[in-house]
Prior knowledge:
Radius of gyration: 34 Å
Number of strands: 21
Largest sheet: 6 strands, antiparallel
Structural class: alpha+beta
Shape: elongated
CATH architecture of the largest domain: 4-Layer Sandwich
Mean pLDDT: 85
CATH topology of the largest domain: Phosphatase 2c, domain 1
CATH superfamily of the largest domain: PPM-type phosphatase domain
Distance between the termini: 95 Å
Helix content: 25-40%
Amino acid sequence: MSGIPEGEAGAALRALLTDSVVGLAVWDTGLRCVWVNDALERYDGIARERRLGRRPRESLTGDTGELEALVRRVLATGRCVTGREYRVPTAPDSRRDRAFSASFVRLHDDGGHILGVCMLMLVVTDRRWAGDRLAVVSEAGTRVGTTLDVMRTAQELADFTVPLIADYVTVDLTEAVRLGEEPLDRLGRSQGRVPKFRRAGRASVHAGSPESLWLNGEVVYVPETSPFMQVLSSGRPLLHPVLDPSHEAWLADDPARAAKIREFGMHSLLILPIHARGVLLGVAVFVRTSNPTPFDDNDRLLAEELVARAALSLDNARRYTREHNTALALQRSLLPRRVHGGTAMEVAARYLPADAEEGVGGDWFDVIGLPGGRLALVVGDVVGHGVNAAATMGRLGMAIRTLADLDLPPGEVLTRLDRTFIRLTEDEEEGGGEVATMSATCVYAVYDPATRTCALALAGHPPPAVVHRGGDCSFPDLPHGLPLGVGLLPFPTAELELPAGSLLALFTDGLVEERDQDIEVGLRRVGRALTGGASSLEDLGTAVIGTLPATPPPDDVTLLLARGL
């Protein structure tokens, strides 16, 4: 740099260029950058060649206009500026910048001649959050736990805390949490084995988190003698300000982790248990690499607040996963695994669950043999989602099987099913239970192979499609009836002629209803698929389901196909 003597001063500057943790830049009297060290590039990501010879507004980031005015003022007055906040965006879409403290000093030579202005930039320790902790925790509430997905919530926690607290963060959860099962109040060896953990979240100041030995979803190795196991067993945090792999005996059993610690210069460690409502869900690990400041109690307190908030979201997500899995298992157990049409009809069924975020619905279908070789076909849809809807669906399915044994006309079957549904709802209300499901729709059809006719009744349900041997598809105009649970009017029975080879398609509204589209659009889509010339009913069912605009769909989809023999 012109004007600055070589000798010892030059040697000191060369040391600052490569070894200092303080970011340094010097502008001459013409406000042109003439010197910059490596630390500054590490902190704000601007390469040396993009900075040298350029003015502050062209060689800094953030509010560069104000920074250039500040450099000009220091150059003109000689009054230094200290502790000026310098913010660096962590990513283009990030809502939180990394903050540094910048000081500006005018430089002179031995003769008092002005040489320029030097900027010194330091990483701000998290003591700056002492007065802003409430705002940080509040912001975490808007960015962590945005969904009821365990893995996504863990990733949001990692993303939020880098580089706010640490340069590298991992979140590992027990297998029980990921599966929505009940975790333990304390985690330790179980039957001689360490419990299984999976990586659920990871974030780093380096793209792709190269520090991590495991990708999200992979099983994590937890050394028995490691500080991680110590935290999991005790349920208490561990603050390790100075991490020196040469003095950590437990790393002898974990050479891969030791290699990562050395490669990335991990020098400070903070491990926090993740627990909520009296149970331990996993562990969050915070590491510092490029930030030279060791973790302290202020860091621990802030991290504990953020992890505690995230833990509640994780436990809510776990509970939701458990309920969703229970409802899905219940629903699947109540649906027939295979349907048989006997000698009357060839039948095939398709069931496609709703999107996991919407929950499990109450769709069901059934094929019931009746006296005289006749066949009853049933498709229903309980309004609502979750365990309640699945349980109600199971009760209605069992009730309609009992009613089918009475060999009543379809309209009478639905009338009695309606009364049964109302009694179920009243029993739940009297029992003090919360009644989330208040109505259901159903179509009940009876096919007689002797007369090749089909008698059917609808309870607020979409009419079936009929495909004749010639290939024409129609949706008969039938009395819809009111949904089950209303109990006002009987359900009329209609009759359709089904010549040999005719196809009857019963379905729930999830197959034909689309957001922002008239139902006629969905009916035409299904009609085209039904006349597409598939070689078998199984292939035809696959083809019809394949026309759905979204997979998985926003609502459960059930399709029951039946063709007279």
